[in-house]
């Protein structure tokens, strides 16, 4: 019975932390702090295989092949004869296309 109260107390403490952190940044939602920073930085160093780029861009495989062929300046890395695209740099490059 006592062990159940410990889990309830831990749950309330964790919920309080997240609610407090949310209220702290309520007026400024763009601010990153605490645990959310840890999870958001993951895709900065993530690599996408050439065959999976179409999932990230949201277009068909055929259109992606033409895009990659027409724009050889897309940031990419070659490892063991396999082409990878850094997710953050690819996102930045795609946003610059619209300018």
Compact description:
This protein is mainly alpha-helical and 99 residues long. It is 56% helix and 11% strand. It has five helices and three strands, in the order ααβααββα.
Account of the 3D structure:
The chain has 99 residues and is mostly helical. It has 2 domains: 2-40; 45-97, Arc Repressor Mutant, subunit A. Helices cover 56% and strands 11% of the residues. The protein contains 5 helices and 3 strands; from the N terminus they run ααβααββα. It has helices at residues 2-24, 35-40, 53-57, 61-70, 87-97; strands at residues 47-49, 77-79, 82-86. The protein has a 3-stranded antiparallel sheet. β2 (77-79) and β3 (82-86) form a beta hairpin. The radius of gyration is 21 Å and the shape is elongated.
> How far apart are the first and last residues' alpha carbons, in Å?
63 Å
The CATH class of the largest domain turns out to be Mainly Alpha
In what range is the share of β-strand residues?
A: 5-15%
What CATH calls the topology of the largest domain is: Arc Repressor Mutant, subunit A
Overall shape: elongated
The chain-level mean pLDDT equals 81
* CATH arch. level architecture of the largest domain: Orthogonal Bundle
Q: What is the H-and-E element order? A: HHEHHEEH
Helix content: 55-70%
Q: Order of strands side by side in the largest beta sheet?
A: 1-3-2
Number of strands: 3
Number of helices: 5
Radius of gyration: 21 Å
Question: What characterizes the major β-sheet?
Answer: 3 strands, antiparallel
The structural class is mainly alpha
**Number of domain modules:** 2
Low-confidence stretches: none
